[in-house]
Write a structure and sequence with these properties.
mainly alpha, disordered N terminus
């Protein structure tokens, strides 16, 4: 299993090659819009919230990256409590387009973790 359960989603989509291809392309284009190190940190941070991984090491990270990681960790269970100032900090660090890609990345990471936790491939009959 990948840290955030991407393989669980892909396995669940195995019966529909077109959907699986579109999902993989969407995921790849989202990740391509961001720094690969940030992508890995966000995925690991969200997985840690779900108990699937250990928390990422934040030593040596700049303030903007730490703010992004804190925001991403809140997405699974505290998204409605995120304040405008927190979002503005991420926008300031990543830009508007980066913030959109970051938001999609965090949402996909959360969904993939949840898919792994409930054995989505088994539920989908894959």
């Amino acid at each position: 299993m990948t840290p955030t359960g991407g393989s669980a989603v892909h396995a669940a989509l195995a019966g529909d090659a077109v959907l699986a291809e579109h999902y993989a392309a969407f995921r790849a284009s989202t990740e391509a819009a961001l720094d690969p190190a940030l992508v890995a940190l966000v995925r690991q941070g969200v997985a840690a919230v779900h108990g699937l991984e250990s928390a990422p090491d934040e030593s040596g990270l700049d303030e903007g990256t730490r703010d992004c990681l804190a925001y991403a960790r809140r997405m699974p269970f505290e998204h409605t409590a995120i304040e405008d100032a927190e979002a503005a900090g991420v926008v300031a660090h990543l830009g508007e387009a980066g913030f959109v890609a970051f938001s999609v990345l965090a949402a996909l990471a959360d969904a993939e973790c949840r898919a792994a936790l409930v054995d989505l491939p088994g539920l989908a009959g894959s």
